[in-house]
Design brief:
It contains two helices and ten strands, in the order H-E-E-H-E-E-E-E-E-E-E-E. It is mainly beta. It has one domain: Immunoglobulin-like (Sandwich). Strand 7 and strand 8 form a beta hairpin.
């Protein structure tokens, strides 16, 4: 439970420190897909070490979780087959490899990739929750400012 809280609080801290923070989530077919992307240099050194993520102003991270909607609760995290494709303004397309992180009460999918200063990326997310035949779709657009 401590690891889950530590990871969640670290990600939350990063997100709240970003300018113009907005909740990035998509509701689809009884699920909520939470998605966000940020520079790995915004992670604390301890968090980066714990999850083997290289901190760098030229590396970004996408973080995705799939929550099954349950009335009167915050929902239930579920495992899923998740894929992410990134498109930039130059027309370059790349698939971002994801790694699953399971913790006591959470499941995250993270991917790390290189970015350039002021690069704007459109992410296309597809997720198929375990035991479900539906494929969920979400999109995220993020511009990165390297230091």
């Amino acid at each position: 439970m401590r690891k889950t809280k530590l990871f969640f609080l670290s990600i939350l801290g990063v997100l709240l420190s970003l300018p113009a923070f907005a909740e990035n989530s998509t509701k689809a077919d009884g699920y909520t897909i939470h998605h966000n992307a940020f520079l790995t240099s915004d992670l604390s050194p301890e968090m980066a070490k714990q999850y083997n993520i290289r901190r760098s102003p030229n590396r970004a991270m996408i973080n995705i979780s799939i929550i099954k909607d349950v009335p009167n609760t915050t929902g239930t995290p579920v495992e899923a087959r998740v894929s992410v494709t990134a498109h930039n303004l130059r027309g370059q397309i790349r698939r971002i490899p994801l790694r699953e992180i399971k913790e006591e009460n959470a499941v995250y999918y993270i991917g790390v990739f290189l970015v350039e200063n002021q690069e704007s990326i459109d992410f296309t997310i597809e997720a198929q929750p375990a035991g479900d035949s539906k494929i969920l779709h979400a999109a995220l657009k993020q511009q990165f400012f390297t230091r």
